[in-house]
Description:
This protein has helices spanning 19-25, 30-37, 51-60, 65-68, 88-95, 113-127, 198-220, 237-244, 253-266, 268-273, 280-291, 328-336, 343-350; strands at residues 3-11, 15-18, 41-44, 71-77, 103-107, 132-141, 154-163, 169-179, 185-186, 195-196, 229-232, 299-306, 310-318, 339-340, 369-375, 378-383. By secondary structure, it is an alpha/beta fold. The chain has a single domain (3-383), classed as 3-Layer(aba) Sandwich (Peroxisomal Thiolase, Chain A, domain 1), CATH 3.40.47.10. The strands form 4 sheets. Strands 5-4-6-7-1-8-13-12-11 form a 9-stranded mixed beta sheet, sandwiched between helices. Strand 12 and strand 13 (310-318) form a beta hairpin. Helix 1 crosses helix 2 and helix 3 crosses helix 5.
Amino acid sequence: MDIGIERIGFYTPNSYIDIVELAKARGQEPDKFTIGIGQDKQAVPAIYEDAVTMAAESADQILDDSNKKDIGLVIVGTESSVDESKASALFLMDLLDLPENVRAFEIKEACYGATAGLQMAYNFVSTNPGKKALVVASDIARYGINTPGEVTQGAGSVAMLISSTPQILKLENKSAYMSRNVGDFWRPTFSKTAFARGKFSNQIYIEFFETLWKRYQKEFDVTADDFKAMLYHIPYTKMGTKAMRTLEGKISDEKYAQLQAEYKYSIQYGREVGNLYTGSLYLGLLSYLINSAVTPGDELLLFSYGSGAVGELYSAKVCENFKQYIHVKNVQSLLNNRKKISISEYESIFSQSVRDGESVDPSVVTGEFYLSEIKENERLYKTKQ
Length: 385
């Protein structure tokens, strides 16, 4: 039985800042951010947007009455949870009008959460072949104004419908994974922004990739030549480049050059949006499927990493007529029609939030779903009419 991604949807906020303007405002050389980090734009969420609203936006693109009734599992992978008890997935039940006879919950493990959800969805569908699973990666990456991590912020969501009738990507149930208690990145419950040991985190990321690639080759008897492309978790696009460099000199120069060329297609959208945490790998996948010359039957290798740390390397095969099932024009329109805001506007938005007892004017909402108010410390959401 084939199992994999039947549909994929993407959302990012309507506003963004220019990374060159951010560099100048911070007294930095623009090349440090655009080349050294590898970013061009950064999404800026509105005060009425959070992990729930963005998850609803991306999932709504791929759901309709015919597939909603078949959903038996809903998982949101996020490290931007809005509640320490109630799962983001439960808010989606009403916003998306999903059936009650589902398991709905949230997974937290830094940027790995959505991959954990994807693998869990695979197992669910394998034992319930008539059912589908909705897996959503939704995050707001926040490090703070004028901090070292500011340039690697971002926001967005990627939703994937997993079923026994994959039309975009077939998961091959081949993976290598590892977990280790590492203090490279964390966000205590009292803090809205993350703490990170940047260089150390890069080191662990690369170490995990090298270790898993060796294990994967040995367990499944493969080489780099078996894959059309290698896709990476890319909180900033230069990070994947660093992992790929570990292959240099270990595979043929021709294959290394080809993998480098393919990688550039996977980072096009990441450069435009910024860090999606759990969604970064899957935005890279979407970018690659839309922008590259990949063909049905091509094998892809995907590297997922979540600080703390968990890593997984797994393979997938591109389905026949896959582009027919991706809303290419919608993705391009979403990115092209965003509004650029000034650095001062971004700083003002960053410091704002909806407070208890306050409500949001629906006329300012640009999307379909929004945080409408906080009442007695309860977050209430609405669909824009």
